[in-house]
Amino acid sequence: MKAFALAHPNIALVKYWGKRDFAYNLPGAGSLSLTLGGLSTRTCVEFDAALDADSLQLDGKAVESGGKLKRVSQFLDLVRERAGISQHARVISENDFPTGAGLASSASGFAALALAATTAAGLELSATELSILARRGSGSAARSLFGGYVEMNDGVYAIGEDGTKVATRSAEEASKAAYARQIAPAAHWDLRCVIAVTSAGEKDIGSTEGMVSTQNTSPYYEQWIASVPGDIERAAAAVAARDFAALAEVAEASCLRMHASAMGADPGIIYWNATTVALIHAVRKARAGGLPVFFTIDAGPQVKVFCPAEALDECRALLAGTQGVRQILEAHPGEGARLCGDF
Ligand code: DP6
């Protein structure tokens, strides 16, 4: 009743921002991402009849109460229900990168948790079923089950329907559910992601809360959602053709439109700080000068800059030379979630 799993975070090139259903955590539109090797979450889950509650240890510290423990416990309820067990679990999770600072730790966290918890509970789920399950924990986690370049479907099924067994559906039916799939393996295109950390603290407004506020109050939300399918098509074509300039254009547009929809909320949500803005300008200026780079930003002030492998040193120097950058992390196309040994 014990298992270990490892998953990498992923960064969306076409963003997920908004939900069509909250209870089942169904996204308002699809998204497209790259799974990031070089940054990892390792999670151990042990179901134990002697426990009278679930326990969570995150990066060496016991999480006694609050939102994080509740979210993990509710996720474990889904696994218990599916496996027909009632034992509580001991969950230990370690990130080798800063948690909660806009580096998508919920993506790698729930992907690793889904794999470790289902394995510990004796379930054998397909990658698609795991992706659907991980989505219930966090939408972006559905993508981290897979390596390389990944597309997430928005799905068309009404509430609950896409929780049924995907394996028993026709391919056409199955493609209507909300889960992710690999569109190109990690080895397809050696893009690098250089992450400029511009603030060390946990973000003020988490992505779930930011999405809820955006869709409830921003007059730009509908237009944002309507813009996503075209962006996914363009991004998927750019990935298939390894067309850096085309991917740069669509990824920056998707990022800025997502943030514009959030800034249009009431009150407006601004995830950026002065260094975030300085980096946006620095990246655009460098690109105009011939350096192949583009940026993307999630629900926080960190800036992720993509470049081809051969431009890595110049890209790194560009970020290191921007005032206010506190730390630089590097990632490369990574593999999907997998079982691992003790850590
Ligand atoms: C800005 O997956 O964290 O990183 O489903 O509510 O857990 P929940 O949201 P989450 O949102 C990620 C938002 C984003 C964009 C993206 O990764 O697509």
From TrEMBL:
Keywords: ATP-binding, Lipid biosynthesis, Lipid metabolism, Lyase, Nucleotide-binding. Its EC number is 4.1.1.33. InterPro entries: GHMP_kinase_C_sf, Mev_decarb, Mev_diP_decarb, MVD-like_N, Mvd1_C, Ribosomal_Su5_D2-typ_SF, Ribsml_uS5_D2-typ_fold_subgr. One of its GO terms (biological process) is isopentenyl diphosphate biosynthetic process, mevalonate pathway. Gene3D superfamilies: 3.30.230.10, GHMP kinase, C-terminal domain. One of its GO terms (molecular function) is diphosphomevalonate decarboxylase activity. The keyword ATP-binding applies. Residues 7-156 form the Diphosphomevalonate decarboxylase-like N-terminal domain. Residues 193-320 form the Mvd1 C-terminal domain. GO terms for cellular component: cytosol. Pfam families: MDD_C, MVD-like_N. Belongs to the diphosphomevalonate decarboxylase family. This is diphosphomevalonate decarboxylase. It comes from Bradymonas sediminis.
